[in-house]
Design brief:
heterotrimer; A mainly alpha; B alpha/beta; C mainly alpha; B: alpha/beta; Rossmann fold; four-stranded antiparallel beta sheet; 10 strands; C: mainly alpha; 2 strands; globular
Chain lengths: ~300, ~250, ~300
Amino acid sequence: MSNTVIPLLLDSLASAALIFFAAVGLTLVFSVLRVLNVAHGSLYSIGAYVAASIGLFIASRQLSPYLSFAALLCSAVFVAALFGPLIERTLIRWTYGKSEAVQILITFGLFLILEDLQRMIFGVQSLYEDAPVRLLGTSQIGGVVYLNYQLLLIGLAVIVVIGLRMLVRHTRLGRLITAVVADREMAQSIGIDTNRIFILAFSLGVFLAALGGALAMPTSGVAPGLGADTMVLAFAVAAIGGLGQIEGAAVASLIVGLARVLAIYYVPSLDAVAPYAAMLIVLLIRPYGLFGSVSARKI
Amino acid sequence: MKQPILEARDLHVRFNGVKAADGVSLSIQDGEFLAIIGPNGSGKTTLLNLCTGYVRPKSGSVHLDGQNITRLASRAIARLGVARAFQIPQLFSDQRVIDNMMLALAAKDGLWTMVRPLETAARREEAEALLALIGLADDRKRISRTLPEGHRKLLDIAVALALKPRLLLLDEPTSGVSALERFPLMETLMGALRQRQITALFVEHDMDVVARYANRVLVWNAGSIVAEGSPDDVFRDPRVLQTVVGVA
Amino acid sequence: MRAAYAIAAVLVIATLPRLAPWLQFVLTLAIAKGFAALGVAVLLRAGLISIGHAMFFAVSAYGVAFLARAGVGDLATLLVLSVLTAALTGAVVGAFLIRYRAIFFAMLNLAVSMVFYALFAKLYGVTGGSDGLVVPIPSVFGAALDEPAFMRILFYLSLTLMVLVGLAVHRYLDSPLGHALSAVHTNEIRLEYLGIPVWAVLLIAYTLSAALAGLGGAIAGFAIGRVVPEFAFWTASGHLVLIAVLGGIGGVPGAFIGALFLEMVHTAAVTVTDAWNLIVGAALIAVIMFMPKGLYGLVAREEGTKR
């Protein structure tokens, strides 16, 4: 029994890391903008496509494969810079102050648009470029062989969690964001440029999504449908953790990662369903997630 | 002594560290008009929330005709004969006045039909009669969102009356109503309540209204009842004059 | 009077295939999607957007295929049983989902529908996997039919059901229960204080909406002759949402008008481009931003608020 525990835990951590990257941007954007971006999954898959394209380009030109690491980061930056401000200013900003139904429909429409755009630009084949994985090699832990790339991902996920926490608590930007999250109108009335905060927060969310896709690409590739699968997974994680709760997303990622790995070990045909089973169980006990809360009383 | 229609026993509840109810007990007899007065923000609405299942107390209980209703949902308590009019009128604001009334009437005795329309001749008549009683007959086709504040309050009360309750809880019924219309409204309302033998608990700021219409007054401050008695007794109590804002 | 327009429209639709026989299939499919979109529209009344309703469309179509394989061959029986299956699934799924509102409701619907999709696509042994299942031509009152005859019957049956079911849904929306449904969106607290159990109002609406989507799915299954996992895919739900939103405040006729309009546009667009999702997405955004009352709202004049 003990020789399945370590592999189980490490597999779960590796799975959780990728899942966290998929979900953290979604919950971050929700916490600041109070908008759930239904197109979030598409930005993840666009990040993966761009990373794959750059990686394949690097390989085809026989450039140094170590550039592929930079490619991953650059893809995310590129996607965030291109789509972040654009989407926020044209679509998301229009929804502020309007009913939630509007927000859902607008971002859902965007989701449909982006999915077709990806198909038109990148084609229907699945893409795959695993230079980063190959370059890092493997390690033996507890008698099982692991990709060092997976261990890197775990490390990166931890860095992101700590980094975001430090950003919020110890930087000026973080304090501004906290003010806007706590009371948007109050923040505006004391002169905080909420528009700028929103663009930054949204773009950061896009960056994290695209980064997630890019980081996952060397291990899982990218194919049509990834956007939708990621969207529902990201939502499941955000829902389990509590919408808008970054630490919650981290905990939820661990839960979902574990659920997925347990399914793969013991009931493989249900591995795609495992995250949703976990979500169902959590929501039955705590309807708004582990760290989520209901809005204030109205009368 | 007869069993009170509504009884609260030792209610305790806190919000954000503030004691909204600190060992509150009260009882209302059948047919009474009980007024609650006290400074703004002292938690009087919380009392109404506690009695109607909108808020659960940390400890203590609420009883309706002896039945423990503390943990019941608001809809269950409503069906037991308790209706409520709110401080901020709770209406179906995109609907016409008469639609609001008809839905309330249907809720009382005709919701579970998918076949007959909401608007039947009988229901419409009843709705119009209630609106006439409360003085909103002319407004019946207006969208309720477009009514002035005072009329929205009246509609809120009319909707509560449509439930044919035994106990009516009113949260500041005359706030938003002009000084001129205040007494006629209360005259009509109290007359209707007396005629239908409805017991009333009302939170009120207008002391003249309280003096004229309440049988008994509870003085509330910072989560507890600090004085109790007939309007005359209470208005002569120096502690009351101190704590209640606006009493000369 | 609006009833006259409606009757005229139905008669026109009924005779269109005489002029252009290829329209019969398109119209049948449009009516099928209209039913499903009507289901979405019913929930929209309560301010709830389901972006996963295609799951009930698919469940019903798969139900027809399973039942046919199990030997059930009669059209009427297949229709009734598959709709009941969709309704039952709706009741079970709805029991959990109606605790939620707005974004949570929308996303949970999406998530559940993608689970259905995954199951349909993966359980190859049961569902035929990505190839799907055949929906054979059923017998009608005992008579075996060839395809052209059956498709004609299916068309007229769909048209008839559109009228009958449409009228029934209209009555529902006009009833106290239907008004309570709209009121959930406006002031849930007031409803509870009127003694109305909001959860029951919503569950009934959700089950009904699932049954409507199921009716559409069954008709579509018969018309296409096959059911595939894509019936439950999220983009299919998206198309239903667009139809419901296009149909706008028009209630029952709105959903069918929207479906017919969209199916026509689709038939035309498909010859030029295969970026249909992009068009649907852009159209959805455009309608929300510039025509919030929907297509129907543009055409119908403001009649106070009489609904």
